[in-house]
Design goal:
single chain, 310 residues, alpha/beta, Rossmann fold, Alpha-Beta Plaits, 2 domains, six-stranded mixed β-sheet, four-stranded antiparallel β-sheet, 14 strands, binds adenosine-5'-diphosphate, binds magnesium ion
Length: 310
């Protein structure tokens, strides 16, 4: 079952700026998914469309199979969203903000109260329940938004930069909390511009840049690509198949005289040449394949020094 299914999603703002250029994205039920990308990539636009806060220009979005166009109310009831900007009434007391939100989803106060208590306690806000929201620190406001997003028991929780402006200590607490929510069955999607954050929490990741998805894979495979280097080797003899190498998993035959090999951090180019020689394969020349991701991250960090993607 797909928790989220996005097809050819496009957004052009009134200014003419094309924030999303036709993205496709699928997130499985139960996943913990990161949408990673530098500032201005289109993350919030994407989340805004899913949450019904931004009108899309084209494309479709389904939440657990339900279209946000044809089944808006039902699709929305399955979703909890934590936007990047605080959007509660800051003069309202913390507890009321959450209970009112529950009411908006048709959850009666009798059910909403114990839920509210549970989340406020878990998120360390219980002693502030009667404070006006404007009295809370930035990190507390963020947690208030999370409690509010969860009170109607959504199956999919989407958080837009949940740890922006949150200190390290609190960030860890939030990670643990989200881990637990996910372990209990809630699908989670978050956006972040910190690779480290995606790495710590998420199983799958899509990288978005300038309105396009440029990478979509498991976190493990992304990290593996980041830690390895790919070489193109030109061989003296003709090869009909890619050679089988004991220590190298990713060997691709490009044509009769060249292969591409991914060399993980733990191995050297000498290891590679040694294994090839043992099979009487002679390397005449080689070059470093410009790693698409390296290039990408270079570009991304060059645009935004604080992106944390170096
Ligand atoms: P991210 O969340 O990845 O930082 P956004 O989705 O906020 O990116 O923004 C994507 C692009 O769309 C940026 O160039 C941004 O300036 C532009 N943008 C965002 N919101 C608006 C808006 N309301 N009107 C015009 N342009 C916008
Ligand atoms: Mg954003």
């Amino acid at each position: 079952m797909l928790a989220l299914e996005i097809e050819n999603l496009q957004k052009t703002y009134a200014s003419g700026l094309q924030a999303l250029k036709g993205i496709d994205l699928e997130v499985e039920q139960g996943d913990f998914f990161a949408l990673l990308g530098p500032n201005g990539a289109g993350k919030s636009t994407c989340i805004g469309i899913i949450s019904g806060l931004v009108n899309k220009t084209a494309g479709s979005v389904r939440i657990f199979g339900h279209s946000i166009d044809q089944e808006f109310t039902f699709a929305k009831s399955l979703l909890g969203s934590v936007p990047q900007e605080f959007n509660f009434n800051t003069f309202e007391p913390v507890e009321e903000i959450i209970i009112n939100q529950a009411g908006y989803y048709g959850v009666p106060a009798r059910i909403a109260r114990p839920e509210t208590e549970r989340y406020l306690k878990q998120l360390g806000l219980w002693q502030h329940r009667r404070s006006q929201a404007r009295r809370l620190s930035g990190g507390m406001k963020r947690r208030l938004m999370i409690a509010r997003a969860l009170v109607h028991q959504p199956q999919l929780l989407i958080l837009d930069e949940p740890t922006a402006g949150v200190d390290i200590e609190l960030r860890r607490t939030m990670w643990d909390f989200l881990d637990q929510i996910n372990a209990n069955g809630t699908t989670i999607i978050l956006t972040t511009h910190y690779l480290e954050e995606a790495e710590r929490m998420c199983r799958n990741v899509a990288i978005i840049d300038e309105g396009n998805i440029i990478q979509n894979s498991s976190m493990a495979s992304l990290l593996q690509q980041l830690n390895s280097e790919t070489f193109i080797l030109y061989l003296r003899e003709e090869l009909q198949h890619a050679p089988q190498l004991a220590s190298f998993d990713n060997v691709t035959r490009l044509d009769q005289h060249s292969i591409e090999v991914e060399v993980p951090e733990s191995l050297s180019i000498n290891d590679l040449i040694g294994e090839l020689e043992a099979q009487n394969i002679v390397v005449e020349r080689m070059r470093n394949k410009v790693n698409r991701l390296e290039e990408l991250f270079f570009k991304m960090t060059a645009k935004n020094d604080t992106a944390g993607l170096a």
